[in-house]
């Protein structure tokens, strides 16, 4: 039986909007966004995981240590929680964004946990995964519903579950692991807790306090999930943040010192020599040169 694509509008829209489950603000679910050419967007500390489905046009996006990556219609990429995100539309463009903490269904959560060993063999480089059938049809239907004003919690919850269902059915484990690499771990809940809270604290002891776990239990679980000690991981995040700031055009050492909480320029100089083997000025020159050639 041949089917035809016909334009249709949501019936009884006022009844739909008066439902107590209608979502005027999307906290967990989907958003359809359109951008004019050269329109920019930025978020310094993403509060959710964002899965971006590029529907039309081209986008240049920087996320954490990955700078000015070009994405095209028909691709999807994950922006993990607590990321620094900058982007702009190269052309008139549109995308669909899925906001979520961790998958709502236990089976979906278990799938991500089971892929932790697959992730060990992947060198993550913020590369997209292709959108293909039947996901193309799923996104077409979802976009049509949203554009016509259908935005109840039931729709968002149902479609998020359907997305993971289709992903498990029609994408290889290697592809799923590559897409969700930043949030996959042996214990997804614990990894999500760390990713959500590590930017809110000044040290590991404060993070342990927020976890409501014993110190020994926390350190053991951290090592299991992240493959390194909590101290090593926190230091790695701090160093990565310094490198990210160094690549920003027009950045000055004073701004970095203030933003990252160093006591003095002398202290920051010693830190850079110890961890990067050069002075802050030399590090800026290296990072700017690398960013221009990448």
TrEMBL record:
InterPro entries: Homeodomain-like_sf (IPR009057), HTH_AraC (IPR018060), MarA-like (IPR050959). Keywords: DNA-binding, Transcription, Transcription regulation. Pfam families: HTH_18 (PF12833). SMART domains: HTH_ARAC. Residues 188-286 form the HTH araC/xylS-type domain. It comes from the Bacteria. One of its GO terms (molecular function) is DNA-binding transcription factor activity. Gene3D superfamilies: Homeodomain-like. This is Helix-turn-helix transcriptional regulator. The lineage of its organism: Bacteria, Pseudomonadati, Bacteroidota, Bacteroidia, Bacteroidales.
């Amino acid at each position: 039986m041949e089917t035809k694509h016909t334009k249709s509008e949501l019936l009884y829209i006022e009844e739909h909007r008066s439902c107590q489950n209608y979502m005027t603000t999307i906290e967990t679910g989907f958003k359809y966004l359109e951008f004019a050419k050269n329109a920019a967007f930025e978020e310094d500390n993403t509060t959710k995981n964002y899965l971006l489905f590029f529907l039309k046009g081209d986008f240049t996006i920087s996320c954490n240590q990955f700078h000015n990556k070009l994405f095209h219609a028909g691709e999807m990429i994950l922006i993990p929680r607590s990321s620094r995100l900058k982007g702009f539309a190269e052309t008139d463009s549109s995308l669909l964004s899925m906001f979520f903490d961790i998958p709502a269904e236990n089976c979906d959560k278990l799938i991500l946990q089971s892929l932790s060993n697959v992730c060990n063999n992947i060198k993550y480089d913020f590369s997209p995964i292709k959108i293909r059938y039947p996901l193309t049809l799923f996104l077409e239907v979802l976009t049509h519903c949203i554009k016509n004003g259908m935005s109840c919690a039931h729709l968002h919850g149902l479609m998020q579950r359907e997305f993971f269902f289709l992903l498990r059915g029609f994408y290889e484990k290697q592809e799923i692991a590559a897409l969700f690499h930043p949030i996959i771990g042996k214990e997804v809940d614990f990894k999500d807790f760390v990713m959500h809270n590590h930017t809110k604290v000044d040290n590991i002891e404060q993070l342990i306090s927020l976890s409501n776990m014993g110190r020994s239990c926390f350190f053991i679980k951290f090592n299991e999930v992240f493959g390194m000690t909590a101290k090593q991981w926190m230091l790695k995040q701090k160093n990565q943040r310094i490198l990210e700031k160094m690549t920003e055009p027009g950045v000055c050492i004073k701004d970095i010192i203030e933003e990252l909480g160093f006591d003095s320029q002398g202290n920051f100089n010693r830190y850079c020599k110890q961890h990067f083997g050069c002075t802050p000025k030399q590090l800026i020159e290296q990072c700017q040169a690398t960013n221009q050639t990448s």
